[in-house]
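seq:
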Amino acid sequence: MILEAILMLAPLAVSLIYKESFVHILAFLVPIVALTGIGFLLQIPKPNRNHLYQKEGFALTAMVWIVMTLFGALPFVINGDIPNYIDACFEIMSGFTTTGASIITDLTVISRSTLFWRSFSHWIGGMGILVFVLIFIPESNDGSAMHLLRAESPGPQVGKIVSKMKVTTRILYLIYLGMTVLEVVILMLDKPIPGYENDQFFFSLLTTFGCAGTGGFGFISGSMQMLHPFSQYVISIFLILFGCNFSLYYLLLIGKIKDVFRSEEFRSYFLIVAGAVVFVFLSLVCRFEAFPQTYTLEESFRHALFQVSSLMTTTGFTTTDYDLWPMLAKTVLILVMFIGAMAGSTAGGMKVSRIVIAVKGMYINVRKLINPRYVPKTKFEGKTLEQKTINDVFAFIALYGFIFLGVLFLLSFDPVNGQTVSVVSDAGSHTVKHGFFSNFSAVLACLSNIGPAFEAVGPYSCYVGYSAFSKIILSLTMLLGRLEILPVLILFNKRTWKKV
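struct:
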């Protein structure tokens, strides 16, 4: 809580720099004072023991994210940018979980401090809130820190880069910070957006926060549509880079370049990205199906690269209304939304490593059915693939599927179903009906932490039409997706709170 108070000083500074009203300044001062006061009071009671078991580490991680959300939503309510508290919680949960799903219909009336806090929450949540905390707190010898890292870091297998956990977290954040600064500098080399000449640094910063955390909050109408091609290509490249496992960047820094290219997940990741870009590009160029947009050859490639990199890394930035694209292109985008990027990155989704392990696991099981004496020698990342790892991956995919269907069922009760939504995009004005595919893609977008989806919740729409109940359900779905299910399930399991 004290850390969140410190982080809120950044949007407070933005509010002062842009000379916003006293209410906007107060919107951050009040939560800062409350968080600091409660944070210090909570340090007075001393626990009987200082170490954490895995169950407690997982539950604590989920609880921290919920508390961060409940207080992080207060500035939106106090300054009036999002007066409804449930809407404000949805927005900031979407920010911290790097989802990018929004309920804001008009970004032009939102204050600069709110725009900054929304995008900054992507950067905070991208690498992980508790990963950042681990930099400063004393390292224990009982493995407590490892439980927190495992609960917050995406992927089937989480480990330390070096022997010391504190050094590992510092390395991760230094790489994260370095890549953030590099992207801001490169984006500043482009021409300013017409009409926003004085905001180039501010917009470059917000764009980079979204790329680094692979979140997709827009700050001007049309997301990244108004940016010049140079910036769009830069964003595409950095999205792919932020979708890589950060451990690989450490290997690059210490000169183990060959080890990077030996990574099976790394090769699979780039192969999937390249294949998806090719299929989407061909769909746009060959026009297997009629669609309203007209692109040049270069525009077709740029939009294909941008949307594949944005949706596969679960960022959600857009340069065009992909909801109007041919079915082949949309199908490819849905597939990469399910897959996600690499484990150990800031992206969501199932992760490439799980997909690779699941495919190999199915092959092993089929071989065992054919020949019960078959002894598997399948390897992943140079190590023999153990049956426990395969079972864990299958269990995660099963949980993912059950939660997906459960949330989809709950959304079917929403009164918004069947209503018509008007959409204004780069292809003109059109209407879409809020139906099954809208709910299906909304659940996928929240569970995989993507943000924009299709139809009524497409790239030029938002989630404002859903009821308060649905927004709460979708907010929890975002948290389930970001923490990869188990920490949230453990937190709400009654056995977690029983004394042993």
